[in-house]
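Quick illustration for those who missed Monday's session on complexes.
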Amino acid sequence: MKRYSALALARQAIAGHDGWPQAWRSPEPKPRYGVVIIGGGGHGLATAYYLAKKHGIRDVAVIEKGWIGGGNSGRNTTIVRSDYFYAASAAFFEHSLKLYEGLSRELNFNIMLSQRGSLTLSHSRHEADFQRRVVNAMRLNGIDGEMMTRDQVREFCPILNFAPDARFPIHGGMIQRRAGTVRHDAVVWGYARAADALGVDIIQNCEVTGFRRDPATGAVTGVETTRGEIACDRVGLATAGHSTVVAERAGFRLPLTSYALQAFVSEPLKPVLDTVIGSSVINSYASQSDKGGIVAGGGIDAFPSYAQRGSPATAEKVIAGLVELIPSFSRIRLLRQWAGIVDYARDSSPIIGPSPVPGIFLNCGWGGGGFKAIPGGGDVFAHLIATGTPHPLTRAFGLHRFREAALVDEAAAAGIEH
Ligand SMILES: Cc1cc2nc3c(=O)[nH]c(=O)nc-3n(C[C@H](O)[C@H](O)[C@H](O)COP(=O)(O)OP(=O)(O)OC[C@H]3O[C@@H](n4cnc5c(N)ncnc54)[C@H](O)[C@@H]3O)c2cc1C
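Prediction with flavin-adenine dinucleotide bound:
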């Protein structure tokens, strides 16, 4: 792999940019791999990278039914943060944020991390009490978090709606200053390029349609794909909103439900919003991209679905909420709207652990919040696949928690979903 650097850029500029090597190969699938990862999103690619880099397992294929990053990893609103309530979630997401902080250097790929802060508004004294509880928990867990008064919020983000007769008057807020945004495609491409350089085969346009299992032990022995059968010893499943579909093909059910989650981007504007703002009560949030577009999101559609469209009713709710937060945005035009299919467990926490089928491991249930988890998720999932035992950071997140009534109900505790 040629290193990206200022010197390489200058050389290529002089040579007319003809000499850049391909960032990753498009190999034909081999008949056998040690590990097959299903799903070429951020989690699948990061897992392959850490398997090769940290565990020396390079006999790995990432099988993607479409194109890499064509799922949620290329459809999200790019927010990264670690302002979680429970110690288990806080430790995991902080690990992931720390990996993000060094990722451009690690991958030699600019992921455009912008730690502009993430401010969650409160609209009443009661909500502020709730946020104080979260901020106190964050601090106890060694994570930066601060409460803000109404005046501090006004100074920090003056375009918000401070009208005295606002339907949702701003009381104050909580902020994590190390939170922010990361360019989503860059994360996918950076991991793909680095994994490929370590020998991982990235196979696109190849859907996993079934599994081969040893009749005596039930253990996985390979996958059936639209490009033929591939034998393997271990399978990592990282298919987000389609995890239940793939699991059924392997003969087991997952406690997950899939919903459409929508995002929106406006026409480009001059810089007006230099932080991520959101409100759990209004259920809308927004940031401004480096190109100037206002990137907005909100809650999931109210019914399960695999249709990557999103319902107009939810779109209206999110946009109405955004205009409530920042009334001047009522005059800007929407450029695009899209949706991804996200998979939720009852407690809105991920599932990372062994599956009921020996040799198949699970990385799913990220819902609307797994982009921030990509480096951490890849790291702990690689550990699980390589060693067969859960990483200490994810012991709370196995399937066992549904049997043992040990759910980690983060959405109820922190009230934030992106
Ligand atoms: C609109 C929206 C906004 C979001 N905003 C945020 C945010 O701001 N911050 C945040 O942290 N998270 C956010 N998320 C969530 C985040 O995007 C996801 O949790 C994360 O990208 C999941 O990554 P992944 O690699 O597991 O899944 P994906 O990127 O979806 O990758 C899974 C891949 O599996 C492939 N696949 C499925 N079935 C098969 C098969 N049978 N064979 C082969 N391949 C298969 C799919 O094609 C897909 O490419 C958002 C999601 C959406 C939809």
